[in-house]
Amino acid sequence: MAASDSLSVVFAALADPTRRAILSRLAQGPATVGEVAEPFMVTAPAISQHLKVLERAGLVTRTAQAQWRTLSMQSEPLDEASAWVEKHRREWNLRLDALEVHLETMKTAIKTHNSQKTGS
User: Fold this and answer.
1) Beta pairing partners, 63
2) Are 54 and 19 in contact (CB under 8 A)?
3) Do strands 60-65 and 31-32 pair parallel, antiparallel, or not at all (unpaired)?
4) CA 75 to each of CA 18, 25, 47, 82: distance values in angstroms, whole numbers, following the listed order
5) What global pTM score does this model have?
6) How far is CA 106 from the centre of its chain?
7) Cα(49)–Cα(45) distance, rounded to whole angstroms?
8) What is the pLDDT along the chain (120 residues), one digit of tens a residue?
């Protein structure tokens, strides 16, 4: 069963390279569905499915003017995902720093023990 919280939906949407490429295109500015679909070698229904996933995650909004549908990227869900990644990156860096200090302490203790054992 897939998680349905907003952060999980955003990460699931970002897991697909086509959807990430669509977001990269929309980061340059709003575009029509045709403009977004143009570089991809996939069917229109496949692009439509990718867009639905991105819309469900709140990463893309669609506006209609006459027969044209314009897509725009929304950065707020990316900000939330980025904040989550940064929080965990900081925590892991602190843990790795503590591990490095611990290993250096052990290394020094072993050297001291070995030099006392050999009398040098």
Assistant:
1) 70
2) yes
3) unpaired
4) 18, 13, 20, 10
5) 0.78
6) 37
7) 6
8) 677 899 999 999 999 999 999 999 999 999 999 999 999 998 989 999 999 999 999 999 999 888 888 999 999 999 999 999 999 999 999 999 999 999 999 999 999 999 888 876
